[in-house]
Amino acid sequence: MSEYRNGFDIDGVIYMGNTYTGVWPGPNDIIITGRSIEEAPETRRQLHDRKIFNQVFFNPLPWAEKSRVTSGQHKGNTIMRLIHQGNKIGLFFEDDPVQVAEIQKIVGNAVQVVHLVHNLTEKENVRHVISDNQK
Question: How far is CA 63 from the centre of its chain?
Fold first, then answer.
């Protein structure tokens, strides 16, 4: 077993709409999402419904203040903080080219960013609310 852990974005990586299952993290991998901490309860429910129980790092910015750029910066800074704490991060999976660029500015060669290219999900700031019939 590799001592490296991989990192995964949610939207466009783990979640690719209702038709496709997306790319799933292994049991020791981490999730770093651009979703605001305000969206944590519904996001955890969505992940748990898919039997995904990995550690999730949410964007600390309020939903109304975050952007694709700040989400990428949050992911890059979180990766570097985890590395400085002694974690070995091998790959980070991301679909948004704006965020890929921001992450790479911060992590440099410390982590390989895998850019998943598709048009299955919205790249802009979308609110993730679970309706009553999805609970």
Answer: 15
Cβ atoms of 25 and 52 closer than 8 Å: yes
pTM value > 0.85: yes
Q: What's the topology of domain 5-134?
A: Rossmann fold (3.40.50)
Q: Where are the domains of the chain?
A: 5-134
Q: Quick one: pLDDT at residue 2?
A: 61
CA distance 10 to 116: 12
The count of other CB atoms within 10 Å of the CB of residue 99 is 27
Q: In degrees to the nearest 10, what's the CA dihedral of 59, 62, 64, 66?
A: -30
Work out the average pLDDT over 71-91.
97
